[in-house]
Design a protein that fits this description.
Layout lengths: L5 H24 L17 H33 L8 H26 L13 H40 L6
Helix pairs in contact: 1-2, 1-3, 3-4
Length: 172
């Protein structure tokens, strides 16, 4: 079996952590929406609607927890057997890519295609909030890719310097 990369582990962790931020901050703390608040059968202003939404929010949290556990397992597999220590740029960049991917996929599917809920179900026009959620996702992906690329560039430069030092007759 091929060992997973630190980057793939960080991306999976980012998906799970991004889901946790969405669920904890938007669903629970701010109470802007629940998973099914835009579904006509489960409004958040009835006891039955809140019961069903709480159940689905819990299932959503369980899924994000599974993604975090999978990311930790992948990271452990990537680092075992004497692997080099990963850089903060790769870990943070990968997590940002994963979180951004979560926002983009969840935003497009749940907010726009299925219209299960919007970022803000308590405002007259939720579209700007939904677009902002997607924009944040895109920014996270771009920033994460930039961090990972910068790290890979730094690794190549470091390897080049080490090769030059290792040549006979070269000066440091």
């Amino acid at each position: 079996m091929r060992r997973p990369s630190v980057l793939s582990a960080a991306i999976v962790l980012g998906v799970g952590l991004g889901g946790f931020v969405d669920g904890i901050v938007l669903h629970q703390l701010l109470q802007w929406h629940h998973l099914l608040t835009d579904h006509g059968d489960y409004p958040s202003d009835t006891v039955r609607g809140l019961e069903v939404n709480t159940l689905w929010d819990g299932l959503f949290h369980a899924l994000t927890w599974v993604a975090v556990v999978a990311g930790v397992v992948l990271l452990w597999l990537a680092l075992r057997e004497g692997s080099t220590r990963p850089s903060a740029r790769t870990l943070i960049g990968g997590a940002a890519i994963g979180w951004g991917m979560f926002n983009l996929v969840e935003g497009i599917i749940d907010h726009h295609l299925l219209t299960l809920h919007h970022v803000r179900d308590d405002v007259a026009d939720p579209l700007p909030w939904d677009l902002g959620f997607l924009a944040l996702g895109a920014v996270l992906v771009v920033a994460g890719v930039a961090l990972v690329r910068a790290d890979r560039h730094a690794v190549v430069e470091r390897q080049d310097r080490e090769l030059v030092r290792a040549r006979p007759g070269s000066s440091p």
